[in-house]
Amino acid sequence: MNKALRKAVIAGNWKMNKTPAEAKELLDAIKPLVKDADCDVVACVPFVDLSVALEATAGSNVKVGAENCHWEPSGAYTGEISAPMLAAMQVPYVIIGHSERRTYFGETDVTVNKRVKAALANGLTVILCVGEYLEQREQGVTGEVVALQTKIDLQGVSAEELKRVIIAYEPVWAIGTGKTATAAQANEVCALIRATIADLYSKADADALTIQYGGSMNAKNAEELLDQPDVDGGLIGGASLKPEDFAAIVKAASR
Ligand code: PGA
């Protein structure tokens, strides 16, 4: 982390977990544990939990996010939710391009880019996920893959809009597997993403960008990962469902 230059952000990604009643219970448990955080704290929850989550976190330092949004404002897209719908609910954050969306639901960098632009146009802050598959790391093309994703996913995004973008570097082989990237591996790719942003925008824009690491970050390894200069936070899956573990990660980002 480099808090002199940019914000540290710890975001939970609840994925397809928790009913509305369970969401309220989890947030009620998390809130007191993170109330003194010296970093931004976000809980990204399933669409059906958004209402309850906004209510449960009102007046607290926990912000709410969605896990995806469509690029069109409305229309014949059964099962999708649009950015204006999230904006109307005053949901401040949205995850876009998570590897589970890319792997299981056919998301490409082109559709990710459209979703990013729609979210930004509607005033949301985007947590944009990029990351390589294991084969790509083994082939030595991690840098190329992540730079390409970053470039395509941000096509047409202005420097002004970039201020509402957080990039989450999530190596796919580390997600939900218990296999974390080493602190050095995480920092190397986060630094590379920052260099890509410096090329596309400016060094000042790159310096100000929050870049999270995600992939089996937990209460034990968070401190070492967050100690890296280019790792500005975490996108937390499994551990975000456990209040004490999530709070421990928030504490590690609050130093
Ligand atoms: P994990 O998930 O922490 O369970 O590995 C991270 C993510 O998918 O964002």
TrEMBL record:
- Catalyzed chemical reaction(s): D-glyceraldehyde 3-phosphate = dihydroxyacetone phosphate
In the record, biological process GO terms are:
gluconeogenesis; glyceraldehyde-3-phosphate biosynthetic process; glycerol catabolic process; glycolytic process
A cellular component term from Gene Ontology for this protein is: cytosol
Q: Which Pfam families match?
A: TIM (PF00121)
Q: In which pathway does it act?
A: Carbohydrate degradation; glycolysis; D-glyceraldehyde 3-phosphate from glycerone phosphate: step 1/1; Carbohydrate biosynthesis; gluconeogenesis
- Top-level taxon in the UniProt lineage: Bacteria
In terms of PROSITE patterns, this protein maps to: TIM_1, TIM_2
Cell compartments where the protein resides: Cytoplasm
Q: How does it assemble?
A: Homodimer.
The residues responsible for catalysis, as annotated, are 98, 170
Q: Where is substrate annotated to bind?
A: 13-15, 176, 216, 237-238
Q: Which SUPFAM superfamilies would you find in this protein's record?
A: Triosephosphate isomerase (TIM)
The EC number(s) attached to this protein equal: 5.3.1.1
Lineage, broadest ranks? Bacteria, Bacillati, Bacillota, Clostridia, Eubacteriales
Q: What is this protein called?
A: Triosephosphate isomerase
Keyword check for Membrane, yes or no. Answer: no
Which source organism? Candidatus Caccousia stercoris
Q: Which Gene3D superfamilies match?
A: Aldolase class I
Q: Does the keyword Transcription regulation apply?
A: no
Entry similarity comment: Belongs to the triosephosphate isomerase family.
